Amino acid sequence: MTEMMTPRKHPVAPLPEAGTLADEIVKALMFRVGKNPSVATGYDWLNASIKVVRDRIIARWIESTQRTYEAGGKRVYYLSLEFLIGRLMRDAFSNIGLMEEMRDALASLGVDIDVIAELEPDAALGNGGLGRLAACFMESMASVDVPAHGYGIRYVHGLFRQEIQDGVQVELPETWLEHGNPWEFERRERSYEIGFGGTVEATTDKLGRVERHVWRPSERVLATAYDTPVVGWRGKRVNTLRLWSAMPIDPILLDAFNAGDHIGALRESNKAEALTRVLYPADSHQAGQELRLRQEYFFSAASLQDIINRHLGEYDDLRSLPDKAAIHLNDTHPAVAVAELMRLLCDVHGFGFDEAWDVTRRTFGYTNHTLLPEALESWPIHVFERLLPRHMQIVYAINAELLREAREGGLNDSQIRSISLIGEDGERRVRMGNLAFAGSHSINGVSALHTELMKETVFADLHQLYPARINNKTNGIAQRRWLFQCNPGLTALVREVIGDRFMDDIDALRDLERHAEDAAFRERFAAVKRGNKERLARLVSERMGLWLDPSALFDIQIKRIHEYKRQLLNIVEAVALYDQIRSHPERDWVPRIKFFGGKAAPSYFNAKLIIKLANDVARVINNDPAVRGLLKVVFIPNYNVSLAEVMMPAADLSEQISTAGMEASGTGNMKLALNGALTIGTLDGANVEMKDQVGDENIVIFGLTAHEVEERRAEGYDPRAFIEASPELSQALSAIRGGVFSHDQPDRYRDLIDGIYERDWFMVAADFDAYADAQRRVDALWTDPADWNRKAILNAARMGWFSSDRTIRQYANEIWDVPA
Ligand SMILES: *Cc1c(COP(=O)(O)O)cnc(C)c1O
């Protein structure tokens, strides 16, 4: 025997006992992953572990589906172009109740579950709050036992990975499917043809009256389903997230191929697959390109065919659809589903217009997520008509009916112009918000303030016409992910002092209130926070090579970078504070670290410039010995769900400082407060309701209200007056404008700062002094740790209302009419 042939010896752990979880993991590794335990990589262990737990999930999944079917109950269909899922392993293992058993089983095999958990890709099939809400809703629907299907797109590339190079955002492709996806099941048998373009033919009867319309698309692609099980808390129910992937339709390909057109066949194939290749990276901004409208129609049409298919499998008539299906539109992205359902009912199932319109309106509900004009979707008529000629006709028909009702309802001409599905100012466009509103029986906003503003602004006239339709459903977050999993230290402490009841009934978290007065408990609470801050400091040291002092005040602003969210206000305040510390070194300054995290849309010039500014300011401040130990600024790259899970529990202060009236709700604000951060914020979005819940004395509110912002704008706002009246602000703005932080390019921020002098749409100048004062109030609070910790504890204790379980129960009872 040569040396080469001597079998290599691998250190092999003793074989686990047959029938144990460890034994199952080893078997899965060998027979399902195809690896010898002694050479298995972390990915292999992750894969095998997921498969073992997945088997148990599937049993519950089948049981849940069967239960719904037998009960003949109504199902909820949640249509969303985005699901910002993040990692799934912890959610699923812990909800099914196997987290600790899996930890022990893997430990007995020499594998650390926390290490392999870090290998799971972060599924970023969304941009920010809207997509994350959809993910929390999916988890909550399973947890409160609502039979639901989420429908979306299986993007091959989710939201881009962000690198910061020389302070500049660089976008890199994201490849979450690189190592396969053990959670998903491809359902080839669930495939539907989706058409685009072509012509519409009308068939007529003997008298020449139009009987039916037949759409003959010029292009077709296949939508294939990929299902992911969504496990509810304690495994109560397992629902389905069904994501569609586009594929070429074989016959077309075969024709081209047989005709010798191999390149043509390949081109068709690439074109089909391009449809679901990437997520549009624009947040609170309309994407605008034709491919986006294709994506919207593709997933809406596939979902509707699937829903109708399921309905007709159980019932023989689509007239009962509204009693058995509640279809929910997450923003206007799936609004074309309104026209598609009308088409299917009229053209395929023989309904008359009136009856189809009645069924449609009783089936759909719609959530509005923003009032920002640049985010309100509309499509040029010529694009819409070319891509969806039959839907264009249906939109006109719906519009005729809508305008008839409007005239009957006494709306004037200008109101009628505003509610029309077709915008006539400039290029004629299809307004998706109005279409979604017209086609739904319920339209909801996502916080009390946002809902009121919706009634006063975008939908004022539609609201006058249909006063019963608009209602509020304040957003929420899933406490399983945003407390139990991301903050095991706090969760264990809470369980110890108030028992486990809050884990099933989050309102019981209020029992924590009485411990806020207990000095010993406050110490333990502070120790948990300290541990979480050390964990974040470690992450920053590993990723960025920066050393941070965990005893400093951790001041955190993490969210998409957008002018309305006002990261710029925070950065300008950092510059002013820097100047103050240097001018008054004798004062007792509170050591503070300002953290930033967030992605900018690649085409959003100012947002990217703000990232650069944060990094420029950080470089100067962090290298100045005059403020060492007192002030640091850190921009952590690639903010995503997994990073959020480390940052939320580590925050002392949560920055929620949007221009009032512009943040519809926010959910990052809820995650941070639930983990014991104090909020500094404006009276915007859900901050208003957070203030009501936690109490005025436990939150730091500053700045103009939404109505004051409106008034200022109406009366002609002059930012210069505010700048001249505030020496700190003018000093900070001049420093930035003059190149103090950009020696390599002194005029880098000239236009950005001139924008504040000249227009300041987001009212940075008007709110600056109030914000700086509020920060000094925060400093004063920080110097009394007992008081700070009492407030932090009360924040956590009083955030239970912001559970997405509460939100989902309200949707179920008040919109969907399903039990929850
Ligand atoms: C919660 C969350 C958001 C939303 O944050 P807001 O502060 O509400 O804008 C965005 N991205 C991620 C990764 C989140 O977890």
UniProtKB/TrEMBL annotation:
This protein's UniProt keywords: Allosteric enzyme, Carbohydrate metabolism, Cytoplasm, Glycosyltransferase, Phosphoprotein, Pyridoxal phosphate, Transferase
Protein's cellular compartments: Cytoplasm
Record carries keyword Ribonucleoprotein: no
InterPro entries assigned: Glycg_phsphrylas (IPR011833), Glyco_trans_35 (IPR000811), Pyridoxal_P_attach_site (IPR035090)
GO terms, biological process: glycogen catabolic process
Molecular functions (GO terms): glycogen phosphorylase activity; pyridoxal phosphate binding
Identification of the protein by name: Alpha-1,4 glucan phosphorylase
Lineage of origin: Bacteria, Pseudomonadati, Pseudomonadota, Alphaproteobacteria, Hyphomicrobiales
